[in-house]
Design brief:
Length: 97
């Protein structure tokens, strides 16, 4: 039996990736950033699920659930994905002007 080993995550970013992000705090749709209001993928976009409350984001490969206080990240190619606040602050920091 092979003994498990420990690994350290290697830094892989040579050049920082710039993304846009917005924290959802159950704001009304008219307060969303334009890129979130207009997002479409395969005829679907972002849907408010009032039973949660949560947002549903449809992508090419998956359906993402966004909880209150999650960050919605828009990648360089326009893809959207949610991140929990702790994960977001671990990997991202505001750009300096």
């Amino acid at each position: 039996m092979q003994t498990p080993m420990k690994f350290i995550h290697k830094p892989t970013v040579v050049k920082p990736t710039v993304v846009e992000a917005w924290q959802w705090q159950n704001q009304a749709e008219d307060e969303w950033p334009p890129w979130l209001k207009t997002y479409q993928c395969n005829g679907r976009g972002v849907i408010i699920d009032h039973s949660g409350p949560r947002l549903l984001i449809f992508t090419m490969d998956d359906l993402f659930f966004v909880k209150i206080n999650d960050w919605i990240v828009r990648g360089p190619q326009g893809s959207l994905y949610p991140l929990a606040p702790l994960i977001f602050t671990t990997y991202y920091e505001p750009m300096k002007s």
